[in-house]
Automatic annotation (TrEMBL):
The keyword Transcription regulation does not apply. InterPro entries: Class_I_gatase-like, HST_MetA, MetA_family. One of its GO terms (molecular function) is homoserine O-succinyltransferase activity. Transfers a succinyl group from succinyl-CoA to L-homoserine, forming succinyl-L-homoserine. This is Homoserine O-succinyltransferase. It catalyses: L-homoserine + succinyl-CoA = O-succinyl-L-homoserine + CoA. The gene is metA. The active site is at 142 (acyl-thioester intermediate), 235 (proton acceptor), 237.
Length: 305
């Protein structure tokens, strides 16, 4: 939340130049406050695990948030009880009349399929078109980030032979963008994907900014100039052992996976993972909620266009 200080206090300009969010007394007096309404379109098979990961990051703010869990696939996921889906999830058709302050679209284990081969691709396109007029800001994660770039801008990903898997250092490219406030110049983030969109392809889209990137992973955090679209190609929400679980699952399935990079202590899978990304993940979600959503969304969601 912002610091409220007098309009003529000298610290106001100094802090603003340092990219610290301050609000003068006049703006604070006129600000209207209400709970935020955020939808989570959960495409992961283990719904409960993903819910916990994302809700944990959303919770680190004094802003009250009302959550709707959304699904677009009628088939019961094998890793989540049907009762859980029936009790806690809305079909998209049940909520498409609503407007939301924010929407999060998770990744999905669909790495090796063309988008048109995905059974719910048509519905996914419908949701992405709907989000442009019914959501103030939408965050797309991993597979969903690449799918959204393809849908909105016509740029397809390239599928690599080996999965990019591990925890990698990234550089902040726009330190004064509000989404990057408080980030260290270099920070770590987990990735687990086959798809890749080149940095040049992102940079060829005038309305997008690559806010953070890495020589090893390419673009990591990309946002539209109007702050209504955010693309995150990794998994800042991952638990400490998520990459380990994926690695051991792939071994059991005979896929001969590469060891996740920069993840196990001394690169030895017998050791515990080194957890070096959770603070940045929390900060990313907090910044998104505050600066891209709360500070820009209309007080009356009916005014959203």
């Amino acid at each position: 939340m912002p610091i409220r200080i007098p309009s003529d206090l000298p610290a106001l300009n100094v802090l603003s130049e340092e990219n610290i969010f301050v609000m003068d007394s006049e703006r604070a007096h006129n600000q209207e406050i209400r709970p935020l309404h955020v939808g989570i379109l959960n495409l992961m098979p283990n719904k409960i695990e993903t819910e916990v990961q994302i809700l944990r990051l959303l919770s680190n703010t004094p802003i009250q948030i009302n959550i709707d869990l959304i699904r677009i696939d009628n088939k019961a996921p094998k890793n989540t009880p049907k009762a859980h889906m029936d009790n806690f999830y809305y079909q998209f058709e049940q909520i498409e009349h609503k407007n939301y302050d924010g929407l999060i679209v998770t990744g999905a284990p669909l790495a090796l399929l063309d988008y048109e081969q995905v059974k719910y691709w048509e519905k996914m396109q419908t949701v992405m078109d709907w989000a442009r007029t019914h959501v103030q800001s939408t965050m797309f994660l991993c597979w969903a980030a690449h799918a959204a770039i393809y849908h909105y801008f016509g740029i397809n990903r390239e599928l690599k032979t080996d999965k990019l898997c591990g925890v990698f250092p990234h550089q902040v490219n726009y330190e004064h963008d509000e989404l990057m406030r408080g980030f260290d110049p270099v920070f770590n983030a987990p990735h687990s994907r086959y798809g890749e969109i080149s940095l040049k392809d992102y940079q060829s889209i005038d309305s997008l900014k690559v806010l953070a990137s890495s020589e090893r992973t390419g673009a990591y955090i990309v946002a539209s100039e109007d702050k209504r679209l955010v693309f995150v190609t990794g998994h800042p929400e991952y638990d400490p052992d998520t990459l380990e679980q994926e690695y051991r699952r792939d071994i059991r399935e005979g896929l001969n996976p590469n060891l996740p990079e920069n993840y196990f202590e001394n690169n030895n899978p017998a050791n515990s993972p080194l957890v070096t990304w959770r603070s940045h993940g929390t900060l990313l979600y907090t910044n998104w909620l505050n600066y891209y959503v709360y500070q820009n969304t209309p007080y009356d969601l009916a005014d959203l266009r």
